C-alpha cells in the first residue's frame, strides 16, 4: 500500500474537524475536498470569502468558510478566535496556504511577504489554535513545505525581511525552510504533551496557480515542460493527505512524491535538506518568530 498510497487509502474521517488554509484553490482545495468526502467537517480558511464559498459549493460534505489573511496578524488573531469559539476541538490543522516568488512586497505588519505569509502567519495561527488541538487524541499539525526549501535557502537572521537586497527565489527558499524547521521544533515541544504530532509534506511540482509569479525568463520553459514534469493538483495534494490521515505517520516526518527527484508520484516518506535538521537554528528561529508575532505557544 505504501508505494501506491492514494485517496482510497484515507481512513474514515467522520467526527473529525479539519482546518485547511488556502483551501479555495489548487492543493488546498483538493486536500479539503478529499477530507470532506471521507467524512470530516472541513473549514476552508481563506483570504477571499467569496471564492471560499464558491469552492465550498463544489465540495460534497460538511464544509464551512472562515476568513483568514495570513499576511495580517490581526486577521490571524480574529480567525483563530472565531475558530476557537466554533470548535472546542480540532483534529487536523493543515497549514497549506502560501505565496511563491512574489516581487518585493511587505505584509500588513511589515514582514517580507513570503516569510510573513508562509511562515510567520502559520506560526501564529498554529500557536493560537494549539489549545484546540492538544486535548484531541490523534490530532495533527501538517505544514506544507516545498522542494524550494533546498534552493538558495538559508535563514537570514541578519536580514529576515530582505531589506538589504531581495531575491524572490531566496526569499521563498527561506520561507519554505522555515516551514520545516517550525515543524521539527514544534514536534520536539509536543512530544511531552499527549498525542498531537507535527508533520510536514510537499507536493513536488504541481500544476497550480501558485507559480503565477514565476520570473518571466522561466515561464516559457516551464510552460513547455509542465506536462512532462508536473502532476495535477489532486496528486500534489496526496503527500499532505497522507501526512494528515495515515495511521502510521509519526511526528517530525516529511512526505513527498516518491518519483524521481520527488517531482511527481505517489506519496512516500522523504528526507529534507541537512540544514533543515539543525536544532540550534530551529530553536533560534522559534524564539525570533515568537517575538515577531507576539504569539507564545502552550508547549
TrEMBL record:
Keywords: Oxidoreductase
Top-level taxon of the source organism: Bacteria
Stored SUPFAM superfamilies: NAD(P)-binding Rossmann-fold domains (SSF51735)
InterPro entries (alphabetical): NAD(P)-bd_dom_sf (IPR036291), SDR_fam (IPR002347)
Pfam families reported for this sequence: adh_short
UniProt keyword Oxidoreductase, yes or no: yes
Gene3D superfamilies from the UniProt entry: NAD(P)-binding Rossmann-like Domain
Keyword Oxidoreductase: yes
Family: Belongs to the short-chain dehydrogenases/reductases (SDR) family.
Name used for this protein in its record: SDR family NAD(P)-dependent oxidoreductase
Source organism per UniProt: Kineosporia mesophila
Amino acid at each position: 500500500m505504501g508505494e501506491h498510497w492514494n485517496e482510497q487509502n484515507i481512513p474514515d474521517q467522520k467526527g473529525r474537524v479539519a482546518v485547511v488554509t488556502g483551501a479555495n484553490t489548487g492543493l488546498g482545495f483538493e486536500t479539503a475536498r478529499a477530507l470532506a468526502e471521507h467524512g470530516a467537517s472541513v473549514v476552508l480558511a481563506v483570504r477571499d470569502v467569496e471564492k471560499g464559498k464558491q469552492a465550498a459549493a463544489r465540495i460534497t460534505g460538511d464544509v464551512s468558510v472562515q476568513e483568514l489573511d495570513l499576511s495580517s496578524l490581526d486577521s490571524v488573531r480574529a480567525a483563530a478566535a472565531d475558530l476557537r469559539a466554533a470548535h472546542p476541538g480540532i483534529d487536523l490543522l493543515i497549514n497549506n496556504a502560501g505565496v511563491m516568488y512574489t516581487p518585493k512586497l511587505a505584509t500588513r505588519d511589515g514582514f517580507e511577504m513570503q516569510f510573513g505569509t508562509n511562515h510567520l502567519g502559520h506560526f501564529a495561527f498554529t500557536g493560537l489554535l494549539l489549545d484546540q488541538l492538544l486535548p484531541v487524541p490523534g490530532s495533527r499539525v501538517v505544514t506544507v513545505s516545498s522542494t524550494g526549501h533546498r534552493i538558495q535557502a538559508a535563514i537570514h537572521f541578519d536580514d529576515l525581511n530582505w531589506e538589504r537586497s531581495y531575491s524572490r527565489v531566496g526569499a521563498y527558499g527561506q520561507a519554505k525552510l522555515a516551514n520545516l524547521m517550525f515543524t521539527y521544533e514544534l514536534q520536539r515541544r509536543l512530544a511531552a504533551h499527549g498525542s498531537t504530532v507535527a508533520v510536514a509534506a510537499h507536493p513536488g511540482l504541481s500544476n497550480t496557480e501558485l507559480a503565477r509569479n514565476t520570473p518571466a525568463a522561466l515561464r516559457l520553459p516551464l510552460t513547455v515542460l509542465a506536462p512532462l514534469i508536473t502532476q495535477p493538483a489532486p496528486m500534489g495534494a496526496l503527500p499532505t493527505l497522507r501526512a494528515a490521515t495515515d495511521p502510521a505517520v509519526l511526528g517530525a516526518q516529511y512526505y513527498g512524491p516518491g518519483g524521481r527527484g520527488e517531482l511527481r508520484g505517489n506519496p512516500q516518506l522523504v528526507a529534507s535538506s541537512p540544514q533543515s535538521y539543525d536544532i540550534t537554528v530551529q530553536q533560534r528561529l522559534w524564539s525570533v518568530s515568537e517575538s515577531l508575532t507576539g504569539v507564545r505557544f502552550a508547549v
